[in-house]
Design goal:
The chain is α/β, with parallel strands linked by helices and 178 residues long. The chain has helices spanning 15-28, 58-68, 87-105, 123-135, 162-177; strands spanning 2-6, 33-37, 73-79, 109-115, 139-140, 145-147, 154-155, 158-159. Strand 1, helix 1 and strand 2 (33-37) form a beta-alpha-beta unit. The protein is globular, with a radius of gyration of 15 Å.
């Protein structure tokens, strides 16, 4: 099982479209997937108690047990927000860190895909996030995939750019082989 994470809670974000395409590509390659969309989380999951080692909302514990704990491979799609990655993803990582810090990502493989309207494909945000995952013991795939000018790659809420589709397929193959 591979967990694909759509790393933003912004309404009508294009991130989910790319994560959905990637999930479908993994499925076509014979890999079962599950999608965790940060837009499906609500801030009620997170309480100040979480920093005292208390899990807060029991639904966050359920999400942790389904999407993080038993999984060995992840693909994380992160749009560029202010030169980095979305705060909701950081808050989620902080929230689950008290549940099983050592078991969340240690020794697990993480593929990163950066998305941006501009031309850098969120390279800086992927670097920031890679540092966080490395700190938690994950093996971040070396070929991070920056995708730039996302609006020009889609039409009618569908990924239409052949080169981007191919790049995502290659990333999926690398994650499977890791």
């Amino acid at each position: 099982m591979i967990t694909v994470i759509s790393g933003t809670n912004r309404p009508e974000s294009r991130t989910r479209l790319f994560a959905d395409y990637f999930s479908a590509a993994l499925e076509e390659l014979g890999q079962p997937t599950q999608l965790l969309d940060m837009a499906d989380l609500h801030h009620g999951y997170f309480h100040t108690e979480m920093y005292a080692g208390k899990p807060g909302d029991p639904r966050l514990v359920d999400i942790h047990r389904q999407y993080i704990q038993p999984v060995r491979k992840f693909a994380v799609f992160v749009p560029e927000y202010n030169g980095s990655y979305p705060g909701v993803l950081k808050l989620f990582l902080d929230g689950i860190s008290v549940l099983d810090y050592a078991g969340n990502f240690k020794g697990k493989h993480v593929a990163l895909v950066g998305l941006a309207s501009g031309r850098a494909g969120n390279l800086r945000g992927m670097d920031h996030l890679a540092d966080v995952f490395a700190h938690m013991g994950a093996w971040v795939l070396p070929n991070r995939l920056p995708i730039s000018g996302v609006e020009g790659l889609i039409s009618s809420d569908e990924l239409t750019d052949a080169d981007t589709k191919n790049a995502l397929l290659q990333q999926a193959e690398q994650l499977i082989a890791s």
